[in-house]
Amino acid sequence: MIEVTVPLGDRSYPVLVGDGARHELSSVLPTDIRRVAIVTQPGIGVTVDPGVTHEVFHIGDGEAQKSLTTVETLCSEFARWGLTRADCVVGVGGGLVTDVAGFAASLYHRGLPVVHVATTLLAHIDAAIGGKTGVNLAEGKNLVGTYWQPSAVLCDTEVLATLPPRELRGGLGELAKYHWLGGGRLDDLPLDERVAACVRIKAEVVASDEREGGRRAILNYGHTLAHAIETGGAYDLRHGEAVAIGLVFAAELAHRLGRIDADAVAEHRRVVAGYDLPGTLPAGLGDDELIERFGRDKKATRQLTFVLDGPAGVEVVTDVPEPAIREALAAVR
Ligand SMILES: NC(=O)c1ccc[n+]([C@@H]2O[C@H](COP(=O)([O-])OP(=O)(O)OC[C@H]3O[C@@H](n4cnc5c(N)ncnc54)[C@H](O)[C@@H]3O)[C@@H](O)[C@H]2O)c1
């Protein structure tokens, strides 16, 4: 088992990565816990034993279930079961479950401890780490949420064996971005070390900027184009696949701004292709439409802002000229 600490002072917590990490649950629960409310989805099929009295609460599958209604139902079920502040919530699932379970835990009785047992690659390297929780509104994704750090996270690489291939590819898109956030040749590492390396990077970024005041924005490397593609609607892409296209685009853009050389662009294309991820835009998305969406991106505090690689590493770059954006878009068509 590889242990990584998310260093947040008296709210620091361990992340255990490895085959069978779920079996460590009882050892990472906060001490003096009486009971555990396990939040999961019926289709996941991962059982855990917290070693104390527990009850399983199911939530539905799919982004439409990531709602205030689901959180309200869950909290009502907690109340009927008699969950108290001496108890703990455990989220067993992918990012959807950890976002919902974390959000409910942060609200119920004004905040209960939560432990995540992450069961998708995306949750291992991203969603379960860092304390961002939330749900969607009809008006948009993740518009309501809290920062609520877990007490511990278990990233069980064994359970990835049952993950549908498409979900695994989605996680690989997020994993690819860590190559340029200090990860280097992550694809040379065995899976558990690769996951742990990503967790270490995310932990360090979260510790330096817990509430996304600045540096945490680098975790959105590749995401500006990804969000613009996803806002376009019915493209048959997992989020991570859209991020992969976004990474290649970001490299092409950084190259046009003189920030990285052609070899660095080629390395982006090599990594993305190596994970069997797409590096070209789906047909039907025009430049004007995409540029208009770039201006509306949630992370864009100023017009046409991107997270780009450069001599000082990946950073936020503002006021990117439109002609360079159009050239970079042409390079991913
Ligand atoms: N809080 C954050 O910092 C953060 C970061 C990134 C993403 N997210 C959120 O994460 C969500 C996406 O997470 P995801 O990609 O893990 O998808 P997901 O949680 O929707 O899971 C994908 C599918 O895989 C199934 N599944 C999960 N584990 C399984 C397993 N071991 N075996 C078989 N099936 C399994 C789920 O039931 C679901 O059908 C989004 O809602 C996104 O907004 C949050």
Plain-language structure description:
- The protein is of the alpha/beta class.
- The protein has eleven helices and eleven strands.
- The chain has a seven-stranded mixed beta sheet with strand order 1-2-9-6-5-3-4. A two-stranded antiparallel sheet has the order 7-8. A two-stranded antiparallel ribbon has the order 10-11.
- Strand 7 and strand 8 form a beta hairpin.
- Helix 4 runs parallel beside helix 6, helix 7 crosses helix 8 and helix 7 packs across helix 10.
- The longest helix has 18 residues.
- The radius of gyration is 20 Å and the shape is globular.
- The N and C termini lie far apart (42 Å).
- The structure holds nicotinamide-adenine-dinucleotide.
- The site of nicotinamide-adenine-dinucleotide has 27 residues, from helix 3, helix 4 and helix 5.
- Nicotinamide-adenine-dinucleotide binds next to helix 3, helix 4 and helix 5.
- Order of strands side by side in the largest beta sheet? 1-2-9-6-5-3-4
- How many helices in DSSP terms? 11
> How would you sum up the global shape?
globular
Q: Termini distance? A: 42 Å
Number of strands: 11
Rg over C-alpha atoms, rounded to the nearest angstrom: 20 Å
* Mean pLDDT across residues: 95
H and E order: EEHEEHEHEHEEEHHHHHHEEH
Largest sheet, in brief, is: 7 strands, mixed
Q: Into which percentage range does the β-strand content fall? A: 15-25%
Bound molecules: nicotinamide-adenine-dinucleotide
State the helicity in percent bands: 25-40%
Low-confidence stretches: none
Q: What class would the helix/strand composition place it in?
A: alpha/beta
